[in-house]
Design brief:
Membrane topology (chain B): Multi-pass membrane protein
Distance between the termini of chain A: 29 Å
Strand order of the largest sheet of chain A: 6-7-8-3-9-10
Structural class of chain B: mainly alpha
Oligomer: heterodimer
Number of strands of chain B: 6
Pfam family, one (chain B): DUF3382
Number of domains of chain B: 2
Main location (chain B): membrane
Organism (chain B): Marinomonas balearica
Number of helices of chain A: 12
Radius of gyration of chain A: 21 Å
Protein name (chain B): Amino acid/amide ABC transporter membrane protein 2 (HAAT family)
CATH class of the largest domain in chain B: Mainly Alpha
Amino acid sequence: MSQESILKVDNLVMHFGGIKALNDVNFEIKRGTVSALIGPNGAGKTTVFNCLTGFYKATGGNIMLNANGKATSVIQVLGESFQFSDYFNPVAFIKRLKYKMFGGSHLVNRAGLARTFQNIRLFKEMSVVENLLVAQHMRVNRSMFAGILKTKGFKKSEDEALERAFYWLGVVDLKESANRLAGELSYGQQRRLEIARAMCTNPEIVCLDEPAAGLNPSETEALTKMIRILRDEHNTTVLLIEHDMGMVMNISDYIVVLDHGEVIAKGGPDDIKSNPKVIAAYLGAEEGEEVTL
Amino acid sequence: MSQAATGIDIKKSAIDSVLAGLIALVVFGPIVGLVLDGFAFNAEPKRLFAIVAVVMVGRFLASWFFQSTKGRDFLYKHTSKDEGVHVLAPGHKSKLKWIIPLTILIAFAVPFIASKYVLTVVILGLIYVLLGLGLNIVVGLAGLLDLGFVGFYAIGAYGLALGYEHLGLGFWSMLPIAAIVAAIFGAILGFPVLRMHGDYLAIVTLGFGEIIRLVLTNWTDLTHGPNGMNAPLPTFFGLEFKRRASEGHVPFHEFFGLSYSSAYKYIFIYLVLLLVVLGVLYVKKRLTQMPIGRAWEALREDEIACRSLGLNHVLVKLSAFMIGASTGGLAGVFFATYQGFVNPSSFTFFESALILAIVVLGGMGSTLGVVIAAFVLTVAPELLREFADYRVLAFGILMVLMMIWKPRGLVRMTRIGVSAREGNVK
C-alpha cells in the first residue's frame, strides 16, 4: 500500500443474514483530500462507514488504514475467528486471542480514524467541554494516583486537554456554549460539537456521516468552511456521506458513488456530475433504456 | 385586603384542613384511639383528638403557606419537572463550603458526646454511606444497574471472618485485602456481563448476589453455614478492646489505666470508619473529575459513541465494577467487626434493594444525596422502632412518592463549569 493513500478498501462484502448490503466494494482514499460517499437511500453508505469504523464486522474483504505511521487492518483488530493454522502457531493464536478479548472499534479510533454519527450521539447530560475531554481520554494522564493526588503532571495534562478543547470549540464556533449541557444545544450546534469531539481524538482521517443533514443553507456554508479548515490547517483527510449535492460537488476532491451495495462510479466531481450511471441511479432510467458505460 | 393581593383562599385552606383531619381520624383512630387491655380495649378519644387537631392545624398552615407568594415559589422550585443536570458557573463556590468542615468537626465529636446506642446507629449509617458510595459508582456514574451489590458486602464481611479464622489475619491486614478480594470478584462478575445492558444486567447481578449468599450458607466446612462466624475487633496499635486480652496482649483500658467500657471499641470503630468514609468521599470527588470518572459517565450516556472515541468499554466497565465492589468490601469489613459476628442472613436481596434505594433516593451520581439518603434510610428505622412492622411499607411509600415528585433524587447532579481560555493545540 502506498504512503499516499490513507484508506484502502478491497472487496468489502457485508451480509446481514440473506441481505447483501455490500457487494464487493473497492475504493481508495488519498491522504489530505476531502472525499464523499454518495448514493441513493439504502445504497449502503452507512454500512460502509460502519465497516470502516469497526462497528460492523465485515463478512469479507479487507480494509487497510494507513495512519499514525503504521498500517492497521480494521478487520483484524475487531477480532477474527480462529483459523486452523492458528493452533500450530502460538504467536498468531495469541494475537488473535488478544484482539478477540480486547479488540473492538475503539482500536480503529486509536489507529487514527474518527467518526460522527447520522443520529447525533453526544453525551447529552455532560457539559460541552466534558464531551471534548472524554474524547481526549487516550491523550491525558490517566493514572489513578496522579489524579487522586492531583499531581503537577496531572494538572498540566488536564490544562492541555482543556486548551485543546477550547481550540476546537473555537473552530466550530461554540466557545460561548462551553459550559452548557450538550443536550441543550440546538441541532446545528450539536452537529458541530460532534465534529469537534471527533477531532479531539487527534485522527488522521475523520468520517462524517451526513454532517449537513438538517442544517440550513448558511449553516451548511459554515460547515463547508470548517471542513476545509480540517483539511488545510490540520492536514486531516475527510470522508463524508452527504445528500446535499451542492455541498458535495463544492467541497469534494473525490467522490465514490454507491448503489445497491456496489460502487457504480468513482472520480472527481465533474466526472460524477456527467456520469449517466449515477444519473440513472438517482433519477431512475427510462424503461428499456439500459445504461452502460 | 392583603389576602386578595396574595390570592390566599381561606375556604380552600379550611377544606384541605378538614379533609386531612378526616384522613388522620381514619388512620390514627384504630392505632391511637383504641388501647388494648387484656382481651378488652379502652377508647382513648383525648389522644386521638389531640393528634387530629395537630394534623388539621398543620394542614391549614401548610395550605396557607403554599398559597402565599413565597410558598408558591417554594413549590415551583421543588416540584418543577425541569430538574435535570445543570452546569455550574465557572469558579462556583458551593454554599456547603462552611457546612462541610463543620459537619466533619461535629462528626469527630460525636463519639465523645453521644451515648453508645446512638454511636452504634451512626456507625451503621456510615457503613451504608460506604455501600451507597460504592454502588453509586456502578449505578449512578457508569449506569450499570447492579442488584447484587450485597455480594461484595458479604465478601468483605466474610473476608474478615475467614481471614481471622483460617489465616490468623486481623482487622488491619484484612481491610485492604478484603477490598482487593472484593475488587477481584467485581472483575469476575464484570467480565461475563459486559455485553449486557439494563434489565439483563440487573438479572445477572441479582443472581450473583444470591450465589454468594447460597455459597456462604451451604459451604459449611469453610463458613459454618447459617451458624455464622466470629469476626475480630480492630486493635489500636496492638492493644485489644476486650475486657481480657488474649495471650501476650494488653487490653486498651489497662494500658491507659481506664476502667473497662465496651463503648471504647465502638468509639474506635467509629473513628476509623469515619476516616475511611472521608477518604472514599474525597476519592469519589476526585474520580468524577478524572479521565476515568468522565469515561464512566460517558459510557452511561452513550456506549457506542464512547467506542468511537477510542475508549475501551470493557476496561471502563470493569474498572467501575471493581472500584464499586472494593468500596462494598470495605463496608463489609466494618460491618463484620462492628457486629463481631457474621452470618449469611445479613446479606439477603433486601440489603441490595436498600442500597439501591439509597442511590436512587439520593440522586444518581450525587455524592451528597447518597450520604443524606444513607442516613435517612438507616437512622429513620431506628428512630421508629415501635413501628418496625410497617418499616417496609413506609419504605415502599417513600420510594413511590420520590418517583412521582423527585424522580432524579433528592440532590440533583451538577457539573463543574470551566472558565473560558485561549485554545491551543500542540
